[in-house]
Amino acid sequence: MPNPGISGEEQQRRIAAIETALQKGYPPPQYSTSHGESAITVAAPALDIKETTLRTWLRENRNQIDWSLWSGRTGNVEIPDMDGYRVKGTSTLYDAQTGEARLQWVKTDVDKERQEQIQREIIAELCEGLPKFKPVKAAAVGSVDLMSVVPFGDPHFGMYSWAEETGNDFNLDIARKDLCAAVDYLVSLSPSGRLVIANLGDFFHADNLEGTTSRSGNVLDMDTRLPKVIRVGVAAMRQCIETGLRHHETVEVVNAIGNHDDVLSMAMSIMLANVYENEPRIIIHDQPTPRHYIRHGKTFVGITHGHRTKDRDLPGIMATERPQDWGETAHRYFYRGHHHHDSVEEFNGCKVEQFRTLAPGDAWAVGGGYLSGRDMKMIVHHKEYGEMARHTCSIDLLRAA
């Protein structure tokens, strides 16, 4: 099984470790670990390598490995799942005379959660070798009692809009200029020592090379090729982070998972966490969860995209997921995107707010009459008193600059 990065001796050592785990009754490596431990989870620590490293090596060499050597050895799992798939049923052919099973067909379906986990593992492996940002000294910063939150309402990097069709031009270059200019303006007004960049999801307009939404398969108006969109989008986010670092003691980044960028939102978080791992003043919240929470004294902020939940349900979700923080705070907010318009509603114990986007509508949105205003806001919170002030950077202000 050729692999130019690993010696033949190391390959045999890995296979031997897997064989040892199989002899102890653990499921074979081609089966999912969603049922518990497998030969991979046991072999990796014995080899002193990461489980993701061993799994990636097996995946890259899948065409050279004789999987039949490990078939049928399923440990305590009667019908194991193939990695990234789940069993949804079986069909068995029995001998009419003896009643013995002769053949069995296993029907499988895509295990979306496991496939997303595999994608995260691959991304994490690829990002480990990225250059690291060198720490810089803090300039004069604001009050530690204050926290400024800058919600990025659905930036949609990669979306294309033609003014003759929609009323506004928009492309990758405009998206970068608008986002970075708005952040530069807002953070220059921040009186806080702590900055939270809250990307509310749909930072990227599409999640795949086909330029479609990953769940519905709708064809999107794309400006350019996806690799270029990723490159420019990540560069813009880094510029915003480093702009914030000049004005604040700490900068935290949350990338909510949107319905347009399920995978790329997680990929960007993993990438940024690797790039800034040596800078203690930058904190990347890279947990692959649908909701994130930020606490500042008695102020508590939830962050989500909002495409899978109702606004009225978010306070209860917050209290359930973070009961201690809920009980110890007095000023609670949930910030979300998705619908591209301003909306604030107060429920028992928590305000839920939707935010506008700097991006205009594409042909589909304009055709449907979705014509919300365009701006970006910064909300300043006190650790004892909750929201103290807010500033708005409208698209008109950016065009006048």
Largest sheet: 6 strands, mixed
Here the CATH topology of the largest domain equals: Purple Acid Phosphatase, chain A, domain 2
Question: What do we call the CATH homologous superfamily of the largest domain?
Answer: Metallo-dependent phosphatases
How would you classify the quaternary structure? single chain
Instruction: Provide the structure class.
Output: alpha/beta
Question: According to CATH, what is the class of the largest domain?
Answer: Alpha Beta
Q: What's the shape?
A: globular
Number of beta-strand segments = 13
CATH-scheme architecture of the largest domain: 4-Layer Sandwich
Q: Average pLDDT, to the nearest integer?
A: 84
- What is the strand content? 15-25%
Summarize the structure.
This protein is α/β, with parallel strands linked by helices.
Structural notes for this entry:
- This protein is an alpha/beta fold and 401 residues long.
- The chain has two domains: 8-123, no CATH class; 131-400, Metallo-dependent phosphatases (Purple Acid Phosphatase, chain A, domain 2).
- The chain is 33% helix and 23% strand.
- The protein has twelve helices and 13 strands.
- The protein has helices spanning 8-23, 39-47, 51-60, 112-127, 163-166, 172-188, 226-245, 262-275, 314-321, 323-328, 363-367, 395-400; strands at 85-94, 101-110, 143-152, 192-199, 250-255, 282-285, 291-296, 299-304, 331-336, 343-347, 350-354, 375-382, 386-394.
- The strands form three sheets. A six-stranded mixed β-sheet has the order 6-5-4-3-12-13. The protein has a five-stranded mixed β-sheet with strand order 7-8-9-11-10, with helices on one face. It has a two-stranded antiparallel ribbon with strand order 1-2.
- Strand 1 and strand 2 form a beta hairpin.
- Helix 6 (172-188) packs parallel to helix 7.
- Residues 31-35 and 72-83 have low confidence and may be disordered.
